[in-house]
Structure formats: structure tokens, C-alpha cells
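Methods — Computational structure assignment.
A single polypeptide chain was analysed. Its primary sequence is given first, followed by the predicted tertiary structure written as C-alpha cells.
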Amino acid sequence: MSDAYCLKARDGRTFKAFVAAPERPNGAGIVLLPEVYNVNSWARGVASSYAARGHTVLVPDLFWRQGPGQHLDYDQPERARANGEAVDIDAVVGDVGVAAGALRNQLGAAARVGVIGFCLGGRLALLAAIREPVDAAISYYGVKLEQHLDELAGLAVPSILHFGETDPWVPPSTLEAVRQLYDGREDVAVHVYANAGHGFARNGYPPFRADAAALAAQRGSAMLEQTLLGPR
């Protein structure tokens, strides 16, 4: 992985993360967690788009314990999903904390760090927002959230959860449970996008939905502006 940053996991082993460095840093960091396809060209492009806004972005290799460097194109869904099924969720959530710490070491101890995730990364982002020192979370179509409902109730940082109405990987029962979980919360927003499926924010690839992606990005940018760059 070019433009790689080497991080030390809590067990002492090292792993790589793609880094997107801004020309004019705004002092805030983002840990970006990709889909099961890992740190592919699309994920790197998303990281670069946030860097263009001034954020310093790290995108960790989600599957380095299973075999580093498995960054897949979208023509390998079976292999990608197999990696996602085998991943050590708890260990990767810890990697998010390591990455957030590395960003603060670079940007200053008081720097604010957000976490943004897609698919598997959306699940990881929410768990990291509970377990690790991050300041905000954005989850796009996080999968298997029904396995974590008790823990998700403890989400205590500003967060946005984006879902597609027709997403086959997020059952209606899960979506309803998540909605009820955060009903009435001013700091946690759950948005469902009509006629949008899993991967609706994946610009350049199906099933991209430009209208849903643009609205989700607008909502996320506003929240990040307030939580990462706003007054303390």
C-alpha cells in the first residue's frame, strides 16, 4: 500500500494504514474504515476527499491479521465477504483506537478525531465510538448491528447512522431496533434514504444513488464541522 503509515497494535505487532494528508491541515483527524473490500481505490479516494477539506485521514488495513494487503476490487465479492466474516471485530476496534492515538500524536493531544465507516466499517465505527477515544462517528449502512444493541445503547459521542431503505444486508427488524434505540436523542441521528440500497454512497460503482449520497455527505459534513472544528 503506497502512502502507508505504520502503526503498532496493542499486542506489539505492526500494521499499515493508508494516509491522506491535507495541504492545509485543519487540526482534526479522521479514521476511515472501509467496506469488506478493504483499502481499495474507492476507499483511498474517499480519504483523499476528506483530506481536501483539511482533515488528516488514516485508513487502516482491516484484515492484516488474516493477511496484510488484501485490498480488493468490486469483482471479488466472495473473497471480500469471507474476509469480513473471519475478521476479529474486537481487535480491529482496538486498531481504531491506535489510529486515533497516532493522529493525536501528530496533530496535538487536544486534536479531535472522528471515525467514519462503511458496511463492515460502519459497524466498527460505532463500536469504536463507544470503546475508544474518538469524538464523533458516522456509520454508513453498518451491518450486523443487531448483535450489539445492548452496547450501542452506550453511544455517547455525536453520531450519524445512514441506512438505505432497500438494503438487503440490514434487515427491517434491525433498522427498527436501531431507530428505537436512539429515538429522542439529539446527539445521535438515524437517517434512512428512500429507494437506496447497500453501498448507495459508493460513487462510481453500483448501486450508487447520487441524491442519497449527497444528502448523507451534507449531513455528515455539518456534524463534523461542529464536533471536530467547532468551539470547545
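Note: The domain at 4-229 is CATH 3.40.50.1820 (Rossmann fold).
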